[in-house]
Amino acid sequence: MAHNEQIIAASKKHPIVPLDEGKAYKYGTAGFRMRADFLEGVSFRVGLLSALRSRKLNSQAIGVMITASHNPAADNGIKIVDPMGEMLEQEWEAYSTKLVNCSTDQELADTYTALAEQFKIDLSSPAKVVYGRDTRPSGHTLVGALADALDATGTKYVDYKILTTPQLHYLVRCTNTENTPLSYGEISEAGYYKKLSEAFIRALAGSKVQGTLTVDCANGVGGPKLSEFLKYVPQDVCPFDVKVVNDAVHRPEVLNLDSGADFVKTKQRAPPSPAPVLDARCCSFDGDADRLIYYYTDSKTGFFMLDGDRIATLAASFIGDLVRAAGLQEELRTGVVQTAYANGASTQYIEEHLRLPVVCTSTGVKHLHHAACNFDIGVYFEANGHGTVVFSPDALRAFKEKEPQSPAQKEALDSLAALGDLINQTVGDALSDMLMVEVILAHKAWTLKEWSTTYSDLPNRLVRVEVGNKDLFQATDAERRLSHPPGAQDEIDEAVKKYTKGRSFARASGTENACRVYAEAATRVEADELANKVAAIVRNFGSV
Ligand code: G16
């Protein structure tokens, strides 16, 4: 059964907003993301694509998340999640871009039919989509458009309402693995909390979390969800003192405002509210709770940040020790995946101190996740705090089935198995990552200050540069160099040469209408100066 007439009729209710001459909608770093008033038609068309994708993949459930994560409140975004909870396969990003950019309803219906024919999709077979949204008020209209596309294409769906992004990824995987040997958990939000709290207690194995943890939730969905999770942690068995702050979800205008992981990482300071407390252990989520940054303030050094690079090194070192203690080091290959934003000192520490291989990919967890899956234990984190640790089926099997040769080996195997359940295997997850960090700190009996002494970061600076047309900037070599506009990279190279331990690159953001510049150098002053010079080069080339 073709769905053309229904699609054309429903599409009229959700027209696509034409963009300026020469511009097109694009599936970026994390889906379509822009000002929310452009997105109703996009959401409808993403619904059509998801229905096709589900039918193409033997009626498995596809996920759709409506969120603009770290972006300001006026933005929104839509991303598609594949059956195992991973990001949409890249080839299909191009098909979704094609559908979204159709200029008439007829062209849209024809493109939908052409894609079905191209992939030999039986349009009368069952299809399923599950979706959720963050706390942005615009999300309501966008899910309405999505549901209309699913109705028009005879697709079953479940609306999970307000969720964190990683919860939606979890639910997609649970839905598609139910009653199979790969079952990932109970298909419900409560199931997610139960799985994490149970694994948290097992992973702590009697170690105690010290002191209070203050969690800044960027006034986003992470606030209420974290509070809900805490109800599942039995305080008598596992005392866990968490202070949830910046959780004003009833005031949508303050989402990500002067708070959250992106604010902390880019401004390199604690959120102004609540006022920083000396030596307190603090962390920040971002607007949809998939990024995590830790920090503290002390009277001597002031603000100190433990970002994604630090979380990666902490996890790699702890898990590496457990793997050795479990006698699995010959069987399982461990590696770390980073992007060009990783501090050079962290890469050096991983390669020289932890003696693990490091792979560098383009920005976007979709790229890192893929590369991490080439290892049995793949630790991947972007410096901005987005990441996770993925375990291969062989690794998970070994944790559960290897016959321990000593009580110490049994303990290590049990800890690894618990971490396998605690760490979200589908995508970076601030809540799950935070629990992992808390477990590791508890086992090591470390404060954040002790964690911070493992290596010294090179001073660095991240700058956001607004340009006339960011699409002029095209990157190559895992986004470490610009291939376009011609001449820009030569000027950056010239600037970098002048600084001791200097490194800098520029790239167009895939989630914001801007370019990003990263610079690091031997001293704070030099890092700032280099960042400003490269930003000026970008501004100059971008205004042409
Ligand atoms: C998204 C992606 C991240 C990426 C970030 C910034 O994060 O999921 O992998 O690092 O955007 O990307 P860009 O530099 O291209 O703007 P989030 O937390 O906003 O979904």
Automatic annotation (TrEMBL):
Record-linked SUPFAM superfamilies: Phosphoglucomutase, C-terminal domain, Phosphoglucomutase, first 3 domains
Binding site for substrate: E382, A383, N384, R507, A508, S509, G510, T511, R516
Reactions catalysed: N-acetyl-alpha-D-glucosamine 1-phosphate = N-acetyl-D-glucosamine 6-phosphate
EC number of the protein: 5.4.2.3
Record flagged with keyword Cell inner membrane: no
GO terms of biological process kind: carbohydrate metabolic process; cell wall organization; UDP-N-acetylglucosamine biosynthetic process
UniProt cross-references to CDD domains, sorted A to Z: PGM3
Cofactor note: Binds 1 Mg(2+) ion per subunit.
GO molecular function, one term: magnesium ion binding
Cofactor(s) needed: Mg(2+)
Alphabetical list of Gene3D superfamilies matching this protein: Alpha-D-Glucose-1,6-Bisphosphate, subunit A, domain 3, Alpha-D-phosphohexomutase, C-terminal domain
Known pathway: Nucleotide-sugar biosynthesis; UDP-N-acetyl-alpha-D-glucosamine biosynthesis; N-acetyl-alpha-D-glucosamine 1-phosphate from alpha-D-glucosamine 6-phosphate (route I): step 2/2
Name by which UniProt lists this protein: Phosphoacetylglucosamine mutase
